[in-house]
Structure formats: C-alpha cells, structure tokens
Amino acid sequence: MRPLMSQSRSAYQLDESARLLAQASRVDASFRSRPGVLGSVSGEAPVFADRAEGAYLWDVDGNRYVDFVLGFGAVVLGHADPRVTAAVYAELARGVSPTLHRTVQLDLVELLIEVIPGAEMALLLKTGSDATDVAVRLARAFTERLHVLHWGYHGWHDWCAPRPAGLVPGVQDHVQPFRYNDLPELDRALSSRPGEVACVLMMPVEVEPPGPGYLAGVRELADAHGALLVFDEVRTGFRLALGGAQEYFGVRADLVAVSKAMANGHPISALVGRRDVLQATNRISASSLSFRSSDGLAAALATIRSIRQTGVVEVLWDRGRALMAGLRRGAARHGVPVSVVGLPPMPYQVFEYRTATQRQRAERMFYAETRARGVLFHPTHQWFTCAAMSAADIALAVNAAEAGYAAVSRAVGGTEEG
Asked: Could you identify which of 31, 170, 233, 389 might form a hypothetical disulfide with 55, taking C-beta atoms 3.0 to 4.6 angstroms apart as the criterion?
C-alpha cells in the first residue's frame, strides 16, 4: 500500500479497478447507465473500494484517499465509526427480521421527535426516495389535492424520476418544478392552481444558499395557498445542525424527509413532522419489512446520539471553512477562475471559464490531479466533511487542490484566458 503523503501522480495506478470495471460492465446492470460513482471511465478514476475507515477510503489498487464524497453525504462521523458499528453488531446478533417490533424503533422515533424542530410523529422508512415519495403521497391524501410543486433532486420514484423511460405517460402531469430563490415565480405557480397544490416540496439548500427571507417567504406562500411545506433534508439533516436546515435557517416545515447522515451510511430514512398529517398514514400504502430492520434503527440511534453529544456539527463547519478558504487561496494564486460555493459542511466549486470546452478540460485536469495525490472530490456532486477529518487532512486536500489548480493553469490558462 502506498503511503498517502508520498503518493505522486506518476505512481498512481488503477489497474485492478479498470479490470473490475470491465467485468462489472458485462454482468452488473447498475454499470449500464454510469461506469462508476465518479462517472469515470477505465483508467481515469477509482471505481471499487477495498475498505474505508475514518476520513479515508482505500481502493482495490491500494491507493488511499481523503474522502470528501463520503457516500454522497451519508457518512457524517467517519467511515466505520466504532460506536455505530458496535450498535449494529449487537442488534444483528439478536436476530434479523424477528417478526415483531423491537424497542429500538420506539427509542429512535422518540429521539427524532426530540431533536428535529416541529416533529410530533415520525414514520421510519429505508431510503431517501422512500421518504420523499411517502411525503408526496401523504400530502395528497391529507389535503385531498393532487398538484405538487418541487425544487431539487428527490430520488427515483415515478413522481420525480429525472429520466422518462419506463414511466407511464401522465404520471408527472401533476408535478411542476420551480426556480430556487425566486419567490415571485413560486407565487405565480401557486396562484395559477388555486386550491390544487397539495405541497411545496424542496431541498432547503444545495450549493446556492437561500437569499434573505427566501425560506420564510416559501413558508408564507404555502400557508396562504393551503399547501403543505415539505423539506427534503436527505442531505442537510443532522449536518448543518443537529436539527438540520430547519434549525439552522429557523424555518419550520410541515413534513421533513431525513436519511443519509441519520445513520452514518447505514440504510434508513424517516418522515417526521406534524401529528395531524402523519396520522393520515393509515389512509395510504407505505409498508415494507425492511422499514423496521433493526440494524438500521440501531445505527441511526447511535449516530444521532454521537452527533448530539460530541460536537460533531462544529467540526463539520470548521473543517469545511478551512477547506473553502484554502481552495480560494489556491485558485487565486494560480489565476484559475473558480467559485467556491455551498455551505462549509457541504462545499463545492465551479470553474468559471467562458466555454464548455475550457470548463470540461479544467475539470478533467483538476480531478485527475487531486485523485492522484490522495484526495477524492466529486466532479459533479457537492462535497462533504465528516467528524473524523483532521486539520492535517484538510491541509493535504488544500495542497492537492493547489497542485490541481497549477495543472489547470498550465493546460487551460488563468483568468485572463478564461
């Protein structure tokens, strides 16, 4: 295994990953739409992990990375956190799918109600897509309306699937997207369908922060039109604050979908919120044996308790601030036009070259260089910090990014050429 600090671009190899990718492309259908989580092609980016621990991920070729993808935000404490792992092992040892409910289910629901603002009841599910799908179905049942206004990515179920292939014609006829940070447009969308909108469902933030008063304005508009406000906090939950974006921005939703960081990467989700709305669950179909799989319940319980008791959120913000500041310094030093965007626990960057060709070349150069130097950033998805990251990890990432900007400046040019 190569030591991380001595890893150089010339020593970086992905032979085994490329071999496995070729095999997977023949037999694993998940590789038909994209060749890997980084959207890589053979020889360009790692595809298969050997193991992960703390802030680090090792690929099958023995390369170690500081991981800023973190399961697309699912890992908040650090990979293989011993507190979570111990809780999962203990629950698995008592038997899988024991027919009856386990008391850990009640413990988790009570904790969710305690830490998430406005929560009076909770419904446990399995994935983020489950949670947003049930939120839409529940909003329609509760309001007896059909139309849904939404912003952001909410999963793969029929009502919001980004790809039309395989969908029944008309399944999204009552679903309409709206622009973020544009209250007049949302007002027009609501006003054009008086008495028809069941809910306004949105990610409270992705990379662009909400403008002053925006989320409060969304809340007011939803109330004025009799629609429920649903926050998709699959990414922001337990990351921006213990109580998620609701706590951080001071705006309350009627329903909140949470997952990902909720269990430090173990599969579980929940829909929490108003009691009167969630009591309508008995009027809809939403059931699965896996919804109450006790390993996920135990993982979530251990994760949320750890976040609450050990100052995890402060570390996420501190590490993210240091990373973003370092990225800005490095880009400026090499004259590379980059906007460092997002909130510190969920940062990202955008190359601001004038042409798509320049941007794409800059991205290829930057991400190839940083991967070869032991840092895993995602080229098309926002990044994340975790509590296991040290100041030294951030310094290593900043140094790798600086090398990436230098490579971009040589290959594409600086601000004056951009």
From this structure: 389
